[in-house]
Amino acid sequence: MLEKHLRLWSGLIVAAFVIPHLFNHSFGIFSLDALEAVRRILNVPWRSPLGGPFLFGAFLVHFLLALIALYRRPHLRMARWEAAQLILGLLVWPLLMAHAIGTRGSYEILGIDPTYPFIIASIWSGGAWIILKQSVLLLVVWGHLCVGLHFWLRLKPWYGAVVPILYPAVMILPVLAVVGFLRAGFEAEQRAVDPLWQEGVFAEYLASPSSLREIHGSLEVILLAVLAGLVALTLLARLARRAYRNRHGTFQIQLPDGRSVRTPVGNSVLEAIQGAGIEHAAVCGGRGRCTTCRVSVGDAISHLPKPEPMEARALAKIDAAPSIRLACQVRPRRDLHATPLLPPTATAAHGRLPGGVHGREQQIVTMFIDLRGSTRLGERRLPYDVLFILNLFFAEMTAALSDTDGHYAQFAGDGLMALYGLEDGVTAGSRQALAGAAQMFARLDTLNRRLKNELAEPLRMGIGIHVGEAIVGVMGPPKAPLLSAIGDNINIAARLESQTKEFDCPLVVSADLLARVGIDTSSFAKHKVTVKGREAPIDVFAISDLEAIKSIEGSPAPS
Length: 559
Hints:
Layout: H1 2-26, H2 32-42, H3 51-72, H4 80-110, H5 116-125, H6 128-153, H7 159-191, H8 195-201, H9 203-207, H10 210-247, E1 250-254, E2 260-264, H11 269-275, E3 294-296, H12 309-317, E4 324-326, E5 336-337, E6 339-340, H13 348-351, E7 360-372, H14 374-380, H15 383-403, E8 407-412, E9 415-420, H16 426-450, E10 460-475, E11 482-486, H17 488-502, E12 507-510, H18 511-517, E13 525-529, E14 538-543, H19 546-552
Parallel strand pairs: 1-5, 10-12
Antiparallel strand pairs: 1-2, 3-4, 3-6, 7-9, 7-10, 8-9, 10-11, 12-14, 13-14
Helix pairs in contact: 1-2, 1-3, 1-6, 1-7, 3-10, 4-6, 4-10, 5-7, 6-7, 15-16, 16-18, 16-19
């Protein structure tokens, strides 16, 4: 637990330095003097007696923890984002060493203030390779930082809403920083023509003791050798650990699809499964920050160690049964059966949803969508043409779901089932479902215009929407489970979709759903529908006016 907190907080301290530093670089676009003026303001915290050691301590701790994490990995199979983060992180120090020595090293060893004119002039005097290395360093550090922050923040419920705001800044800031650095370099190169300017810039450096300058100049080679040695020792330690574990026993994991994995004692369930090349959900990369890697271990729970506090808190958030554990945290010593509870493609949002193999009762909004006349469509066209049209139809429907925070739950021939309100509650989910229906009809109109020369008659569909309690959980075959829902209210929603044929209208919505959002229903036809399994009929509204549908949530037609 302490190690995870140290990794996070050391990374955040580094981010607190890097982001303003890149912002500072962007002022080089205006002038070298502007660059230096902003540095004197932004650098104040890091030039204090505590600020400098605090910053470089964070850099060092973050690097050492990365080596520890590399040592602990039982294999080097990893997600692309993890590989990118690891590679970028290992590249930072070789690229950073000369710059760190030239800035902080000059301040601590030579006692001089490394101003931007001094640093930029030094870099430009080193030639094209040094300039290129400095530019690459900036992009590598920024890339490593962004990957780390993204995969930490994406577990936060609010993160998805702010990504569109953050994304432009994330893309623009490094570009401005590189341009500012190059612009300042060209200005320094022009000023260096004046011997008096160059003499003034390097005066403090040349006045420092020559013995200290020799030490200062030899530091890069020494520290790079130390760095290479630490990485080499880490890789050798991995080999030694593997040999030790292989001598001290293994355990076997039996998966529900019949596959089994044998791995040395000491590995986690997640490490064993991914090490065997089997895909398994792990949004946070196996750091225990999410619950997407959760598995049901059945009777094996009796001989597994109890969850550590971090795992226990994560499982408590989803109200998990005792037999559910996080695959990244469980390190068995005996054979066991493990059933993954989320598909390999699970997202951070899925990790926040409750339930396991049995699911959980939850108020939910359910939508059923059915394409009308698909049988006649198949009679008139070649199978490949029908498949092409259906793919276009489902692409538009799923795009509407994505735009309105709906969740695709089931596919059945020419229709699909969707869920709303999984995270935001049923009141917001009811509004989102109505907005989703409005956008679906708008998208269908657009699709019909695109295919008007291909179709004898326009495509039509019916949608039924209902709200109520259901069992929400991961269901389906082990290789392709889906987050879906079952229950009486799900059947009612399906029944409402079929009623669109009876009422000859595109949309049937339960009165319960419209009541939750306070919509004026005076212009909609009200009916009572008898549903199998229920004694009393339920009130529904048949909506025929597509313009009324579109105006429910002001959903715009797609371009």
